[in-house]
């Protein structure tokens, strides 16, 4: 039962950060790089936590989380 609540909280955080990124992109709001890095980092962390709490196989969890980490590192390099 606890996992279900934690997963719901992670999904809610993910949804809020996606909406914030969409609003920033739509209105062409200028934000600093550190704010963008933190916003995308929170987004990735909540998505990875949701995957970790889901009921899929261990190898698939590791693969998805590893690909998220690699994608975030590439994002940091490109900024």
From TrEMBL:
Keyword Transmembrane helix: yes
Keyword entries, A-Z: Membrane, Transmembrane, Transmembrane helix
Parts of the chain that traverse the membrane: 6-24, 36-54, 60-78
Keyword Transmembrane: yes
Protein name per UniProt: Uncharacterized protein
Organism: Finegoldia magna BVS033A4
């Amino acid at each position: 039962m606890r996992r279900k609540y934690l997963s719901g909280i992670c999904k809610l955080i993910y949804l809020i950060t996606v909406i914030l990124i969409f609003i920033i992109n739509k209105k062409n709001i200028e934000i600093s790089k550190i704010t963008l890095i933190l916003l995308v980092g929170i987004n990735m962390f909540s998505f990875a936590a949701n995957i970790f709490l889901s009921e899929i196989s261990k190898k698939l969890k590791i693969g998805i989380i590893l690909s998220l980490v690699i994608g975030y590192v590439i994002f940091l390099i490109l900024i």
